[in-house]
Design a protein that fits this description.
The protein is mostly helical and 725 residues long. The protein is built from 41 helices and no strands.
């Protein structure tokens, strides 16, 4: 006889019931049946508490093709739990076979427990892995845990619980793909941990650390603290990994005070929880991220003196110094690493290259790229993407494309991010044709465009005012099954408002809501600005209030849009009231905000008030920009005060600002109006030397009074004869 099958409450098919009866009848001979009727049977030996049985396996009996003979007997027995106990091979076979059927393995926690328990009892944890993963994919983790926890816990049950908790922390996209409404990994593992805690079961500290890591990666800081407290309540002794995880969480949250307290607590501990090099590296990283570079440097020095420093110690400090613009200090730090015999890694060089590029040091970044290769370090995709991005932002697409080729020659494959950077580079130059060609190339190379790709192309289309193309890229994105994010919708809404299609812009916002994409402050700012530009200030105010009621805070751009709209319509008092509300809410006005007021008063010829706002701007520590100075220069030249306009021109240069075509044209116009041809010609020469090409307005200002023919000859003479010298 294969199985000892107890009575099953579920209704098995008649044939199966007959089979069970036939198997059971073999236990006794006919001659002993009368004796057994008089003598009570002995009590059965103690058995493990059976898990609740259900009839979820019954439909598998009707599978076509039918189950193999051993499995048919198990399924026909009725109580599959009992039939599989002690037979892990058969349990594994049942799972594999059921998964090949059209119905699949029964979606029931009890069914999964029937297979997992014998596997765990035989210590076949590796075989239990795919079964457990499938249960998680089907959303059965919590009911399965609850079912297992409801029976007496043996060592095998504990190993199974540990496996399930461990897998919950790895709830990857593979699992989410099977779930139409996937639960995030952090939510799932936290729920699994608390289900075990609710039953008084203390997970292993290693599994707890995995839960903490998952919560930390999801930035669920409060839950990290709560799990740590619950660990203590369950009597779980934290390890050095636990403490390092908590430190990292505090640092990433920006709570350096708590991190400092925990570090001091660790330093007073004995055993295996004394701070190690990982501990100090975590704290250095947190200090550098928060900008507390002096404290970070002190800790680096401590580790250097104790000979525990490594490239991991220096890397975050290098990043922090670059963020503050301390390029020379980074160079000194690199020299210190060399003197200490600490070899920089690819990560170190990536940090230096990125930092130099962020500080506008393109040539220095190129030197570091050559240097790392000379040291035998192989640049990775991060290295190449950083440099390609730097070249694209500098408008040097030829070198960016050369790097793309070098990336391939190095045996690396460009990613969607690589192509997105290049496409963005061409869009910045207004070359939408080449950007579109790169999109086609990336598809040919096996890189599928993502939402970011299409958003970049839409944004590029907006910049060249090809608004029809913006719509085409948006529709193509939808046809590829991609779900636009908030930034993609914002770009499309901006395009519609530029077209004057206000109704379509608001309709898109409604679509966002229906798709579950939340509007952000940028969405509201775009819509408010669109309403302001059409003069619909009442609706702009209503939308502003809606923004606040949705829990979003107005930012500097929100207020500046409203201020600009009122200034454009001469409603300066209302604009000032909005400005005061902005300041009282704790938002610092920007250079654009002040420039709007300066321009409004200059346009009215009220230089006294305009300079009042200019002084206020400087007193508040807000740096004027090129537009601010152009506004003042324009007003002064128009009022015949060109000498004061030149004062602001030189002030611009002292502040490191670069005069543009409009600056020169305004000054040339002012000089010509006063008959100051010498300065006008000098400025015209200076424009050319600076690489700024005069346009029609410049020539019109310089050659006032000339008819079209004379102007043409004068321009030829200026550019070919005078400038040629």
């Amino acid at each position: 006889m294969l199985f000892n099958v107890p009575y099953c409450k579920s209704q098995a098919p008649a044939a199966a019931a007959a089979a069970v009866a036939a198997i059971s009848s073999l236990r006794f001979s006919s001659s002993s049946s009368s004796l057994l009727a008089l003598v009570p049977p002995p009590p059965p030996p103690p058995q493990p508490q059976p898990l609740p049985e259900d009839n979820s396996f019954a439909p598998l009996l009707a599978s076509d093709p039918p189950p193999p003979e051993p499995l048919r007997l198990v399924l026909a027995a009725g109580d599959v739990h009992a039939a599989l106990r002690g037979l892990p091979g058969l349990a594994r076979q049942l799972f594999r076979w059921a998964e090949t059927t059209p119905r699949g393995f029964p979606c029931s926690p009890s069914a999964f427990a029937a297979v997992l328990v014998p596997l765990a009892e035989a210590n076949h944890i590796r075989a239990a892995y795919p079964v457990s993963l499938r249960a998680i994919q089907l959303g059965l983790l919590l009911p399965l845990l609850s079912l297992l926890l409801s029976s007496p816990l043996s060592a095998s049950h504990r190993s199974l619980l540990s496996l399930l908790l461990r897998l919950s922390t790895r709830h990857s996209t593979e699992c989410e793909a099977h779930d139409p409404a996937p639960t995030t990994c952090s939510t799932l593992c936290l729920a699994a941990f608390r289900e075990m805690a609710r039953h008084g079961v203390a997970p292993d500290v290693k599994d707890c650390n995995r839960v903490l890591r998952t919560l930390r990666d999801a930035a669920r800081w409060d839950d990290v603290r709560a799990v740590h407290v619950e660990m203590r309540q369950l009597g779980i002794e934290p390890s050095i990994v636990t403490y390092n995880m908590l430190l990292d969480s505090f640092c990433k949250e920006g709570r350096m005070d708590e991190a400092d307290m925990l570090l001091k607590e660790m330093e007073t501990m004995g055993g295996g929880c004394l701070p190690n090099d990982v501990t100090y590296n975590v704290v250095i990283c947190g200090l550098a991220r928060k900008g507390e570079l002096e404290k970070a440097t002190e800790l680096v020095d401590t580790m250097r003196l104790s000979k525990k420093a490594s490239s991991f110690t220096y890397n975050p400090l290098i990043t922090g110094l670059f963020r503050k613009g301390f390029i020379e200090k980074v160079e000194a730090l690199q020299l210190e690493m060399e003197n200490e015999g600490i070899m920089p890694t690819v990560v170190t060089y990536n940090a230096m290259i990125h930092g130099l590029l962020e500080n506008g040091q393109m040539e220095a970044a190129q030197v570091k790229f050559v240097e790392m290769k000379a040291m035998g370090l192989l640049p990775d995709l991060i290295t190449y993407n950083s440099l390609i991005n730097g070249y694209c932002k500098a408008g040097n697409l030829n070198d960016a494309l050369w790097l793309l080729g070098d990336l391939r020659r190095a045996g690396l494959t460009p990613t969607t991010l690589t192509y997105n950077i290049l496409i963005d580079g061409y869009c910045r130059l207004g070359d939408l044709e080449e950007a579109s060609r790169l999109k086609e190339e990336m598809v040919e190379q096996g890189c599928l465009p993502d939402v970011c790709t299409y958003t970049i192309l839409m944004n590029g289309s907006c910049k060249v005012r090809n608004l029809a193309m913006t719509r085409e890229f948006f529709d193509e994105m939808l046809s590829k099954g991609l779900q636009p994010d908030c930034y993609a919708y914002n770009t499309r809404i901006c395009a519609e408002l530029t077209l004057g299609a206000t109704a379509m812009a608001f309709q898109l916002r409604e679509v966002m809501i229906l798709k579950g994409v939340c509007s952000d402050t940028v969405t509201y700012n775009i819509l408010i600005d669109g309403l302001c530009k059409t003069g619909n200030l009442e609706d702009a105010y209503v939308l502003w209030m809606k923004m606040v009621s949705d829990g979003l805070q107005a930012d500097c751009i929100t207020y500046t849009c409203l201020i600009h709209a009122h200034c454009e319509r001469g409603r300066l008092r209302e604009a000032r009231n909005i400005f005061d509300g902005m300041v009282s809410s704790g938002l610092p006005p920007s250079a654009v905000t002040y420039t709007i007021f300066i321009h409004a008063y200059c346009r009215r010829g009220n230089l006294y008030s305009a300079y009042g706002w200019f002084r206020k701007m400087l007193e508040e520590g807000v740096e004027p920009n090129e537009v601010t100075y152009n506004v003042l220069i324009h007003a002064l030249c128009r009022m015949g005060k060109t000498h004061l306009a030149f004062h602001h021109f030189h002030e611009m240069l002292e502040r490191g600002l670069v005069p543009n075509k409009y600056t020169y044209t305004l000054l040339i116009d002012g000089c010509c109006n006063e008959g100051n041809w010498e300065d006008a010609i000098r400025l015209y020469f200076e424009m050319h030397r600076s690489g700024i090409h005069p346009d029609y307005c410049t020539h019109n200002a310089l050659f006032k009074g000339f008819d079209e023919g004379h102007t043409h000859h004068a321009i030829e003479y200026m550019e070919n004869v005078v400038l040629g010298e």
